[in-house]
Automatic annotation (TrEMBL):
Motif (Q motif): 187-215
Domain DEAD-box RNA helicase Q: 187-215
Family: Belongs to the DEAD box helicase family. DDX41 subfamily.
Protein's GO biological process: mRNA splicing, via spliceosome
Keywords, comma-separated and alphabetical: ATP-binding, Helicase, Hydrolase, Metal-binding, Nucleotide-binding, RNA-binding, Zinc, Zinc-finger
Organism field: Phanerochaete sordida
Superkingdom of origin: Eukaryota
UniProt keyword annotation of RNA-binding present: yes
Name of the protein described by the UniProt record: RNA helicase
Length: 622
């Protein structure tokens, strides 16, 4: 029989003939039915029909058995399916239960707890920053464990006092200390062994008794200890960190006079040129007073951007004792080897939290890498958030923390007035506000254009005003400060950054035209008045454009200082209180009205970091 006769037979036969090996066996082969010729099939059918009768019973039985088997199979299959469904449902339910339980637990957690968890994550990220030490020290694993030794000792009668007596004295002046073997507080300059001519000079400037930060800070620094000094604005921190460096330089010069190319023995770093200039001028007056009193003459160099170092060649031409600097110019001079830190043993940072926190951290490390020996490090500021304190402490040797009042608290000698003034009414109201006190008055705005606008407006109204901000030339800035300090000008309009830490005589009134976002800036700004024990007024304009969180920080600060809280500030609720959270201050900026997760300073730092990464990425691409 041909293939044509049985249709598909040729295909099947071809497959039979190929007799596939097991590994090539396709699924179709499972259904393979061997070919049975038609005649044979007919015969088979006939035989079946004929035997039907005889086998009918057997067949029925078999059929019944088969049907039963089939039913059983179906039942078993159904049972298996049901079991599977049951198992799946149980797993699903368990998963749902776990999910529901977690949701319930989350719901039970207060918003404050969730915020705390978030805060802990952010803090852990901050904590991972590198220690404040030079790269070389970090790379070599150099770690100093003992503070520097100095020859200074407190007078015997003070050494003989008990720890309890020291404690009571500190308590009397509201001084909080932390650390090991803390040197004693000393209540007058003579007992601190400050040279007589300087004591007399200070007296002539009405500096007769040390302020609390000086009373504990100067002995601590004289004893060679690393320290973190925190005290409110205008409390005399400058003398506290300058005096030890002057005394150390005097001692070194007395041992062996310095000649050209030698020194400095100490460096003071400030975050702004103006602050560095002011500190430099202070050091000059104090070292001059000593020289006039028969002590060796000390050379001090001002090392800041915007001035020609040629003007100071007379200082560089001699032995150098002290350098007062801003970071950028200092690094430049060190890199050019105009002087070295081979003999430098004293490093002080003013407004240290700003230096560490606001972009100078790498510069500070760079500066540290020029030191050849162990140094004594002093960090001072009016604001020092806990997080920065912790970080700084890790970088110092057995540090002593000297704290007068809460870090970041406002000076209690400043009467703080907060007024709601609509944006468009500010200028006119400013004139009215100027009538509150006689000059000198400082007006702050963080916006450079606004600083210029205010000055222009005041000049038009016949008010003698100067202005200072970061976009002014160094000459303009110096002129503004000089004419305001000398009393030739009544009002200074300033951006916060340009005037931080500046000590002007007897400022009567500080007007904050636009409230800074960060409460620390506010504390520094109002701190231009109420200095060295005198009182002053600070008037601050706020309105709808002031962020609520800033207002809340302000509200708590006023409450802490026992000042009047105006009704519009009173009505601002703390969302953390509603959530039952803790109302402790932000560890990053010290603001009392918010937590770390919505800290404006942290946001700002992160934004700047991202911007600088972008810039370095861009640079890397070329
Ligand atoms: N023991 C003292 N008694 C009286 N006045 C002092 C004393 N020590 C310093 N002063 C004066 O107090 C003023 C403020 O001092 P200083 O500038 O050192 O304050 P500060 O704590 O550094 O403030 P800021 O945090 O704003 O920089 C200065 O004019 C200074 O001469």
């Amino acid at each position: 029989m041909s293939d044509a006769e049985n249709g598909t037979a040729g295909y099947k036969r071809r497959r039979v003939q190929r007799s596939p090996s097991p590994e090539y066996k396709l699924d179709d082969d499972d259904n393979y039915e061997p070919y049975i010729p038609v005649a044979q099939r007919r015969q088979a059918k006939l035989a079946k029909l004929t035997s039907w009768g005889a086998n009918a019973d057997k067949d029925r039985e078999r059929q019944q058995r088969e049907e039963e088997q089939e039913r059983e199979d179906e039942e078993r299959e159904e049972e298996r399916r049901r079991e599977k469904e049951r198992r799946e449902r149980t797993l699903l339910m368990e998963a749902q239960e776990v999910h529901d339980k977690k949701a319930a637990e989350d719901a039970k957690k207060t918003e404050a707890e969730k915020a705390e968890e978030q805060d802990a994550e952010i803090l852990a990220a901050i904590a991972s920053r590198r220690k404040l030490a030079s790269d070389l020290e970090l790379a070599k694993g150099v770690q100093y464990v003992e503070p520097l030794k100095t020859t200074w000792r407190p007078p015997r009668f003070i050494r003989e006092r008990t720890e309890e007596q020291h404690r009571r004295l500190r308590e009397k002046y509201h001084i909080i200390v932390e650390g090991e073997d803390i040197p004693p507080p000393i209540e007058n300059f003579t007992d601190m062994k400050v040279p007589e001519p300087l004591v007399k000079f200070l007296k002539s400037k009405r500096i007769t008794k040390p302020t609390p930060i000086q009373l504990q800070g100067i002995p601590t620094a004289f004893a060679g200890r690393d320290m973190i000094g925190i005290a409110f604005t205008g409390s005399g921190k400058t003398l506290a960190f300058c005096l030890p460096i002057i005394m150390f330089a005097l001692e070194e010069e007395s041992k062996m006079p310095f000649t050209r190319g030698e020194g400095p023995v100490g460096v003071i770093i400030c975050p702004s040129r103006e602050l560095a200039t002011q500190t430099y001028e202070n050091v000059l007056t104090w070292t001059d007073a000593l020289a006039k009193g028969g002590y060796p003459h000390l050379n001090t160099l001002l090392c800041i951007g915007g001035i020609s170092m040629g003007d100071q060649s007379h200082v560089l031409g001699k032995g150098l004792h002290i350098v007062v600097a801003t970071p950028g110019r200092l690094i430049d001079m060190l890199e050019k080897k105009r002087f070295t830190f081979d003999q430098c043993k004293y490093l002080c940072m003013d407004e240290a939290d700003r230096m560490i926190d606001l972009g100078f951290e790498e510069d500070v490390r760079n500066i540290m890498s020029f030191f050849k020996h162990q140094r004594q490090t002093l960090l001072f500021s009016a604001t020092m958030p806990r997080k920065i304190q912790d970080f700084a402490q890790q970088s110092l040797v057995k540090p002593v923390l000297v704290n007068v009042g809460r870090a970041g608290a406002a000076n209690l000698d400043v009467l703080q007035v907060v007024e709601y003034v609509k944006q468009e009414a500010k200028m006119v109201y400013l004139l009215e506000c100027l009538q509150k006190t006689p000059p000198p008055v400082i007006i702050f705005s963080d916006n450079k254009n606004e600083v210029d606008d205010i000055q222009e407006y005041l000049l038009l109204k016949g008010v003698e005003a100067v202005a200072i901000h970061g976009s002014k030339t160094q000459e303009e800035r110096q002129y503004a400060i000089k004419s305001f300090k000398s009393g030739a000008k009544d009002v200074m309009v300033a951006s916060g950054v340009a005037s931080k830490g500046l000590d002007f005589n007897d400022i009567q009134h500080v007007i904050i035209f636009s409230m800074p976002k960060e409460i620390e800036d506010y504390v520094h700004q109002i701190g231009r008045t109420g200095r060295s024990g005198k009182t002053g007024i600070a008037t601050t304009f706020v309105n709808m454009s002031t962020p609520e969180q800033t207002l809340l920080d302000l509200k708590y600060l006023l409450m802490e200082a026992g000042q009047k809280v105006p009704p519009f500030l009173q009505s601002i609720e703390d969302p953390r209180a509603a959530q039952g959270g803790s109302l402790t201050g932000c560890p990053v900026c010290g603001g009392l009205g918010h937590g770390i997760s919505n800290c404006p300073k942290l946001e700002d730092t992160q934004r700047r970091q991202m911007a600088s990464h972008r810039i370095s990425d861009d640079k890397g691409g070329y």
